[in-house]
Amino acid sequence: MADKLFDCSGKTTLVTGGNGGIGLGFAKGIAKMGGDIAIWARNEEKNAAARQELLDVGAGRVETYVVDVSSEKNIVDGYDRLMADFGRLDCVFANSGGPPGFNSVFDMPTEAWHSFLDVAMHGAFHTLREGARHMVARAEGGEPGGSLVACGSLSLFRGMPGKQNYSAAKCAVAGITRCMAVEFGKYGIRANVVAPGLIMTPMMGGEANEKAMAEMFGPKVPVGRVGYPEDFEGIGAFLCSDASSFLTGQTITIDGGDMVSS
């Protein structure tokens, strides 16, 4: 892999929520370029299946951990285990989250508001902060570099009824990421946001629902289709690799041109 532009060999990437959907797509791109992958997710069976899938496509090493990112302590402990296993951290994709779940803000219980932010906002912040801590320590030891990536959405730019929890988390994490880009640039650490458009993942409610949504919304997207997890393989490999070493503080939309057509 060393002769490839997006070479990820020798690099360790953490992907939260990496056992399916966009997270697994991101991880597969890195795996195909020879990188090592750590997955944090709560379903052990799905973790095992994802591990094998990543090894099959070329990952150097894959380890999975049951980590609940709504807990700061779980995150800190998770990094301790990761560092004991891999000895280094080069890239973090803070991807854990869930579907918004409501059609109106009046349907959203206060408890649901807080529980969503615990994972998608606070969890992402703690994941990125603690990841940066390990990258800074490595930089101070003489090896600068690293890539922090947060999963955003088109709710960074658009209002959506009933999705206030989702939008609040994504907008907050985008701001956090930009601040990290400025703070950690001196260590060669870059920080960016990936903002997906309509992507067919298990959160869409099953194969039949995915098919219906693809048929309904795909023709409205400039490229003529909806997105799939494999559409994140390229951006995963790019952001992990040294090819992206001068890209920081940016929000990259992966949406088939949806935003520019609105």
Description:
Strands 3-2-1-4-5-6-7 form a 7-stranded parallel beta sheet, with helices on both faces. Helix 1 runs parallel beside helix 2, helix 1 crosses helix 7 (233-240) and helix 4 (110-140) packs parallel to helix 5. The protein has a single domain (12-257), classed as Rossmann fold (3-Layer(aba) Sandwich), CATH 3.40.50.720. The chain contains 7 helices and 7 strands, in the order E-H-E-H-E-H-E-H-E-H-E-H-H-E. The protein is 42% helix and 14% strand.
Number of strands: 7
- Note the overall shape: globular
CATH superfamily: NAD(P)-binding Rossmann-like Domain
Number of domains: 1
Task: Set out the fold topology.
Elements: E1 12-16, H1 21-32, E2 36-40, H2 44-56, E3 62-65, H3 72-86, E4 91-94, H4 110-140, E5 146-151, H5 164-184, E6 189-196, H6 207-217, H7 233-240, E7 251-254
Parallel strand pairs: 1-2, 1-4, 2-3, 4-5, 5-6, 6-7
Helix pairs in contact: 1-2, 1-7, 3-4, 4-5
Q: Summed up, what is this model?
A:
By secondary structure, the protein is an alpha/beta fold.
Highlighted features:
single chain; 262 residues; alpha/beta; Rossmann fold; 7-stranded parallel sheet; 14% strand; globular
